[in-house]
Design a protein that fits this description.
The protein has no helices and eleven strands. With 125 residues, the protein is mostly beta strands. Strands 2, 4, 5, 6, 9, 10 and 11 form a seven-stranded mixed sheet that branches.
């Protein structure tokens, strides 16, 4: 599976960005895709997850109500719409494919086995 993330950039606080992750190669057998983010000072942090077939989503408390994750079956992409951005949202954002099988919350990087290259999001105050 190959993942290509795009859509990052520089935005002022309160602004919006839309990230996109294109999925190619093998089928995502777990049917789960996630977004994480990381800064140089911290570990990789869960942002959002989507179950591909049902469209059910889950979000970190820090982004709930501001971020929306969606998938486009025709384009084979997952998107992350980010609104009301804050300086603390500044990070490199990564999309990832969930590992199949087992009982997983998909809130940990250990629950994912393929990662995109990341896209930088910078929010200025």
């Amino acid at each position: 599976v190959q993942l290509q993330a795009s859509g990052g950039g520089l935005v002022q606080a309160g602004g919006s960005l839309r990230l996109s992750c294109a999925v190619s190669g093998r089928t995502v057998s777990s049917g789960v895709m996630g977004w994480f983010r990381q800064t140089p000072e911290a570990a990789r942090e869960f942002v959002a997850v989507i179950r591909w077939m049902s469209g059910i989503t889950d979000y970190a408390d820090s982004v709930k109500g501001r971020f929306t994750m969606s998938r486009d079956n025709a384009k084979n992409t997952v998107d992350l719409q980010m609104n009301s951005l804050k300086p603390e949202d500044t990070a490199i954002y990564y999309c990832a494919v969930g590992r199949p099988g087992g009982w997983r919350t998909y809130r940990s990087p250990a629950d994912y086995d393929y990662w995109g290259q990341g896209t930088q999001v910078t929010v200025s105050s």
